[in-house]
Amino acid sequence: MFPIRDTVQSRTPPIMTVVLIIINAVIFIYQVSLGSRLDDFISAFGFVPTRFFHLLEKGNIFFGVLPLFTSMFLHGGWFHIIGNMWYLWIFGDNVEDRMGHIRFFFFYILCGICAGLSHAFMNFRSGIPTVGASGAIAGVMGAYFILYPRARIWTLVPIFFFAQFVEIPAFVFLGFWILMQLFIGTFSMGMGPLSGGVAWWAHIGGFIAGALLIFVFKRREKFITRRFADEYRPW
Questions:
Q1: Structurally, how many domains does the chain consist of?
Q2: How do residues 193-210 score in pLDDT, each as one tens digit?
Q3: H-type alpha helices, 34-129
Q4: 146, 178 in Cβ contact below 8 A?
């Protein structure tokens, strides 16, 4: 399933969502320009669980934690960044709308860090660098799941050799998404490189973090107009 758009209109411009997309795009273009030096760049700034625990053990906390931040702005290819930024665009504007621009930025970063830690503790022997914004974006999706369960997601659903556009409730779309991450993540435990190269537990950790942190980061609203009551009422 691939989301096309949702039915909730933002009441404020998604400034921080756009800024994050631009930052990711600029860094990716820089990655592409590195050529043969790209592998060294990814190794230095990607998040490697074994290196993380080793540096913490040595007391080098700064260089141990730094890749948790830098890795969420790196991507492994065109499909990787386009897919991630599309999901951020679909779900980020409405979550930002309920938090405010600055709160949304710190929420996004914190979800990305939680996602990286989840991956590290579930793959503590891994020496493979992980990159991508998907953990942080999973946090945004977790927040959306809490805030807008009754929203509708226009979704492209493949059916055999055809594709159909279907309007799916947000709680169904996102619930199915996180269940798939849990299923595949559990199945792939211990498989290492055979797990498909996806940090499934980063997605899971990010989603859970977002679903919990939204209660801390969302702004209190004195009233919500009746017109949008069903879409804005959290479960």
A1: 1
A2: 444 567 889 999 999 999
A3: 38-45, 49-57, 61-70, 78-99, 101-122
A4: no
pTM to 2 decimals?
0.88
Nearest to 147 by CA among 234, 216, 227: 234
What was the pLDDT predicted at 234? 41
DSSP assigned state of 76: S
- State the Cα–Cα distance between residues 29 and 172, nearest whole angstrom: 35
Q: 123, 138, 129, 108: which is closest to 205 by C-alpha? A: 138
Residues 6 or more apart in contact with residue 11 via CB below 8 angstroms: 97
Cβ atoms of 204 and 118 within 8 Å: the answer is yes
**Mean pLDDT, rounded, of the chain:** 88
Contact between residue 138 and residue 198 where contact means Cβ atoms under 8 Å apart: no
Dist. CA 47–CA 66, nearest whole Å: 9
Grouping H, G, I as helix, E, B as strand and the rest as coil, residue 157 is strand
Q: In which residue are the tokens 């949702």 written?
A: 6
Tokens for 224, please give them: 């919500």
- CATH code of the domain containing 174: 1.20.1540.10
| Domain span including residue 20 | 2-232
Euclidean distance between CA atoms 112 and 89, whole angstroms: 16
Q: How many helices (H) and strands (E) does the chain have?
A: 10, 3
Structural element, H or E, at residue 171: helix 170-187
Residues 63-92: tens digit of each pLDDT: 889 999 999 999 999 999 999 999 999 999
CA distance 108 to 103: 9
**Which range, of 25-29, 120-124, 188-192, averages the lowest pLDDT?**
188-192
